[in-house]
Design goal:
This protein is of the alpha/beta class. It has 15 helices and 13 strands. Helix 11 crosses helix 12.
Length: about 350
C-alpha cells in the first residue's frame, strides 16, 4: 500500500528518532538480526541502563578521526568500535563522543576496541548519525531480528544508509524578490525529497540559459551571514557575490543549507570552542570526528540543471567546487576569484583553508 513509508521516508524518520534520543536498528537486509543504535549525544541514563540489561557486549562506534584523538586502535580503518566498560557512566560515554574536555581529562582509557566481526552496520550507524547532524558516535549492541518490531523502533538496512546516490531537490516555489544587490531578484526554493533541509537559489536578472552564468555555491553560515561574525569570510563573500551579480546584471547564487561545512551549527560551535583551545579549523573538525569538509556539492549541480543551466563562471576560491561541478556535468568556463573579508580575527582561519584545504587565497 502507498501508506507504507518508503525507504527514503524511513531514513528521514530514523534521523529524527536519533536527534530525539530514540534508538534505531540497523539491519543487514536479511533475517539474521540487527544492530541497536543510540546516538551518544542524545543518550540518557535510563536507556543506557536498559541497554546494559540486554546483555551482550555494547560498543561505542566512533570515526577513525575521533579514534586517533582518543588513541584508540581503529581496526576497522575508518571507524573504531570502543568496547563499553561495565562501569562506564553516561558522562564517560558522552566524553568519548564530545572532545570539549579532552585537554582537561585526556586519559579516558586504556580503551579496548573490537577487531573481530563485520563492522558494516557500525559504519552505517555513524553515517546515519552524521546525517542527523549529531556528534558522530553511537552506542551499539547486536540484537535479534524481532527486537525492532517488539520495541516499535525504526529499522533501516545498512545498504540503504550507505547508498551514495544523491537525493534530488524538487523545485517548490519561486517569486520576485527585490534586493539591495538588484531590484531584479527572484528567489527559488528547492526541497530535497529525503526530508533534509531546503536549499535556495537567488536569481539576479534573467540569465541566458544557453551561456555560462555567473554563479556561486554559498554554504549557509548563520554566524557570518546573519550575525556578521569576524571569525570567517562568509558574510562578505555572500554580499560581495550578490553585489557582483547585480553589477553584472545577471547571475545565480545557490544558498545551500550545509552549515559548518556540512556538520551543522551545533557542531560548528563545538569546533569554535576547540579553536579557542588552540586548534585550527581542520584539527577541530577531526577531533570532533568529522572530515575536513562534509559538504555535498552535487546538490548545487542538481539545482543548476533543474534551473536550465549547463555552464557557469564560478565565483569561488575552492578548486574542489570546480572539480565537483565538472564531475556532475556542469561546465566551469571560468573561475572568478572572491577574495574578500579578511580581518585580524580570521587571518589564521584563511591561512588554514589555503594550506590544508587547497583554497586559492
Amino acid at each position: 500500500m502507498s501508506f507504507i513509508p518508503t525507504i527514503t521516508e524511513r531514513l528521514a524518520r530514523a534521523r529524527a528518532d536519533l536527534r530525539m534520543g530514540v534508538p534505531v536498528v540497523v539491519t543487514d537486509g536479511g533475517e539474521s538480526g540487527g544492530l541497536l543504535v543510540l546516538a551518544a549525544e542524545t543518550l540518557d541514563k535510563a536507556r543506557l541502563d536498559d541497554l546494559r540489561g540486554l546483555g551482550g557486549t555494547p560498543v561505542i562506534a566512533v570515526t577513525g578521526r575521533r579514534a586517533e584523538t582518543l588513541k584508540a586502535r581503529a581496526y576497522d580503518g575508518d571507524i573504531a568500535r570502543v568496547v563499553l566498560p561495565v562501569d562506564a557512566t553516561l558522562k564517560w560515554v558522552q566524553s568519548i563522543a564530545d572532545p570539549a574536555d579532552d585537554l582537561r581529562s585526556p586519559m579516558k582509557g586504556p580503551l579496548a576496541t573490537a577487531r573481530e566481526g563485520d563492522a558494516d552496520a557500525h559504519r552505517a550507524a555513524i553515517t546515519l548519525i552524521k546525517a542527523a547532524r549529531l556528534l558522530p558516535a553511537g552506542v551499539c549492541l547486536a540484537v535479534d531480528s524481532a527486537f525492532a518490531k517488539q520495541n516499535d523502533l525504526t529499522a533501516i538496512p545498512a545498504s540503504a544508509i550507505m547508498d551514495t546516490r544523491l537525493s534530488p531537490s524538487l523545485p517548490i516555489v519561486a517569486a520576485r524578490l527585490p534586493m539591495e544587490a538588484s531590484e531584479a531578484g527572484r528567489l527559488h526554493i528547492f526541497r530535497p525529497d529525503d526530508g533534509a533541509e531546503e536549499h535556495y537559489a537567488i536569481e539576479i536578472g534573467k540569465p541566458d540559459r544557453s551561456k555560462p552564468v555567473l554563479a556561486r555555491l554559498h554554504s549557509a553560515c548563520f554566524t557570518g551571514d546573519v550575525l556578521g561574525s569576524l571569525k570567517c569570510d562568509c558574510g562578505p563573500q555572500l554580499h560581495g557575490a550578490l553585489a557582483a551579480m547585480g553589477e553584472n546584471g545577471q547571475g545565480v547564487l545557490l544558498y545551500l543549507n550545509q552549515e559548518g561545512r556540512g556538520i551543522g551549527l551545533a557542531n560548528k560551535m563545538r569546533a569554535y570552542s576547540l579553536q579557542d583551545q588552540g586548534f585550527d579549523t581542520v584539527e577541530a573538525n577531526h577531533r570532533l570526528g568529522f572530515e575536513d569538509d562534509e559538504r555535498d556539492f552535487r546538490i548545487g549541480a542538481d539545482i543548476l540543471k533543474k534551473m536550465g543551466f549547463s555552464a557557469v563562471r564560478l565565483m569561488t576560491n575552492n578548486p574542489n567546487k570546480i572539480a565537483r561541478m565538472e564531475g556532475e556535468g556542469i561546465a566551469v568556463t571560468e573561475r572568478v576569484p572572491l577574495k574578500i573579508g579578511e580581518n585580524r580575527f580570521n587571518t589564521a582561519y584563511l591561512a588554514t583553508k589555503a594550506a590544508k584545504s587547497g583554497h586559492l587565497l
